[in-house]
Amino acid sequence: MACVAAFPPGILFAPEDEVAVEHYLLPRLLGLPLPIDGLILDDDPLSAPPQELLERNGRREEAFFFAEGQPRCGKGTRQKRTCAGGGWWEGQKTCAEGSKLRLPGGGEEAAWRKKALNFHCGGGGGGGKKGSTGWVMNEYAVTAPEDLAQSPLRLYHIQLSSYGRKQSGAMEVPRELGLPPGFLFAPEDADAVAHYLLPRLIGQPLPLEGLIVDDDPLSAPPWELLDRNGRKEDAFFFALGQVQNSKASRQKRTCAGGGFWNGERTCVDGEKLHVPCLGSGAEVMIWRKKALSFQDGGEKGSTRVGHARVCNHRARSLGRVAAECSIVSGSVATGRRGRGEKQIRARRSCSTAARQRVAEDALLSMPMSDPICSSMAQLIRQMAIASMGQKNTMRRQ
């Protein structure tokens, strides 16, 4: 997934194969404008080893390129795969044939294929050990109609292999938000807090409105929650944490409709972030992330994975109440896919007592159970006023 600097934090360009061909390669072949210029680079993947290629184009571990394929001996169909500067791209034995796509402005259809390759180096006269370097490349080419298939233009996607790299959930950006096809929302934890949760907390505009949904993760099981919000397998939500009762700090985790979110024993504390607009002085925000798995029915088992990014906002300008106020920003992603929804719903006929179990934790200290508020800053102000009133009442007594 390639990060795009001109877009809001967490927005990545990661098109599906069919989207890459239909919305980027075919328009380029037909001379039509692309959805966004400069997103796919013009450079030859054989002009340098992949790391050097990406560095000189200002990319890190991933990039998309338009380039013309080069016949191995100046003619024929076999492609040259040797890189200038050493190393070569070694193709896998099989190619993937994509489904046919209808060309713009007519009834003609286009066929295409995808070939996967690995970058190798060493094994030459220098005595280096032959082997894969971890860089992979996908080559997309149109194979029909004939006039387009004769063009040597290809679309290349080069990236460092995901093996050993940290993986995170990614949500497809809804088309109604105005971005072209192929974009995902997959922010790092610190970016999610700094650029989305924190601005929402202090009443500032978000980088892209509508990307994170206002809904209660406990109002329905995760698949129903995502369905009713028009999401597929991943989504991000703003919601207020709900305490078990008015006197406790342990969080409610039971979902309406059955099932519960079961928290892991450990939490991840994030790096401290400076609050931008809360008066003078060094205002610091402390946050943490907690992972939870959704358990459903009488049979214990994980069906979905959720992450709660919790903001404990300690700012002098908000005083004691702000330190007690925590707001949850959560993401829900598909977990174990082998467990179908029909099986999950069928188990709801099991013991109702098992479904009433409450999975809770002492992560948050949040003495409130109000509905979701569109302005977190307004909520904090209301809490501050209420707390001051309680203090005055206690003093009179």
From TrEMBL:
Question: Which species is this UniProt entry from?
Answer: Digitaria exilis
Annotated GO MF terms? DNA binding
Might you name a Gene Ontology BP term for this protein? regulation of DNA-templated transcription
Entry protein name: NAC domain-containing protein
All copies of the NAC domain together span 7-161, 179-330
Sorted keywords for this record are:
DNA-binding, Nucleus, Transcription, Transcription regulation
